[in-house]
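Blinded run. Sample ID left blank on purpose so nobody reads anything into the name before looking at the predicted structure. Input follows.
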Amino acid sequence: MAPEPRTGPGRSWLLRLVIAFAFAQGAVSMARPAVSYRALALGADEAAVGVIAGVYALLPLFVAVPLGRRTDHGRCAPLLPLGVLLISGGCALSGIVSSLPAMAAWSGVMGLGHLCFVIGAQSIVARQSAPDEQDRNFGHFTIGASLGQLIGPVAAGALISGQGGTLGRTSALALLVSAAVAAVALTSLWRIEHRRAKGAGGKPGHKVPVRAILGARGVPAGIFISMAVLSATDILTAYLPVVGEHRSIAPATVGLLLSLRAAATIACRLVMSPLLGLLGRRALLTSSCLLAGLLCAGVALPVSVPVLAVMLAVLGFCLGVGQPLSMTTVVRAAPDRARSTALALRLTGNRLGQVAAPAAAGLIAGAVGVAAPFALLGVGLVGAAGLGLRGEGRPESAPEPGESGTAPAPSEPAAAPVRPESGTAPPESGTAPPESGTAPPETGTAPVRRPGFDGAPRS
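Blinded prediction complete.
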């Protein structure tokens, strides 16, 4: 039987995955500013908005690695509908409840659903893409996120209007609509995971230690870069409405500004392959993070709306680089049987940033001013640019955890050394002479076989 041809980035499974991701991410991007506006309508201050935004990432922080372990040794597709249902339920119930603690709790459920969906989807892309397709496929996959981030804020801005009690009602309506948008993603989740990559999902007992994954050169840098880029996107989504309230910018205008940023991110990912060919991975990653850091700090300046729109467009283009390249960096550096776990660790870093960054932003905004958190984001992105200068690690240099059959073979003490300078040495008593054409073993050393995690050479 002829082998099944490798699935390319233009095949239907990736297209359906992008469509589903667009609806799921659109619902989340619509719900996040709606949650902020509804919290403000319920009497929350800037610090409380930051806490609610942080709870969105708190619950996923504890379950990302177990979900990654499960995905490494099983199917990825079941996580997708589960994630959609949790997103839809969290959005709907955030719009129904009328207390800030309850809103924070259901915001956490929404974040858990988003985590389930993203772990499953990223693992499918990594498992069904050839190594030379990963940059392109991850770039196309993240277009779904950018489409959702483009449409969601516009829809939220169109639905949310008014002040006081009116603002509370319209923001609740936006959350209910976002729940319906998330449910539409279920219509595209069929035959996504139609095959398993060879060697994927080994025996559940053979777990690669987390320390070994984090010790692989390139994995920590990829995690931090992803965390800095996502924190910038998250703070923009959650705090630009607060900036708009302080600068008397209408919610509809804020939604357009956020969508402009997302549109620029889509444009970046559409031209990702030419940019990589022109600049190279290291230069592209470093320059984009550096420029994004400067622009994030610039958002804190009291500029006009047109200037802010230009800044957000360039910022969105720069932020479009970090996520797909950090995915491929982590996948290539991680051990073969722990790629889903490595991606889950990357998402754990993302969620850690989503917990710490909004909470820190809320404290800074309450103490210094609402625009100050953007300066903090700028510092983080400049630090990510510094890590990008180091480049990604070589997969073959990553430490390999011990598995059965990988321990060094013991030396053979019975083999007598043969001295080439003295001709043929007489065999010792009880030792047969070596056969003709057989190379003598080195003194006290036996060859050590170090296979990859799947028995094949590491790529």
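Unblinding after everyone has recorded impressions. Residues 12-41 form the longest helix (30 residues).
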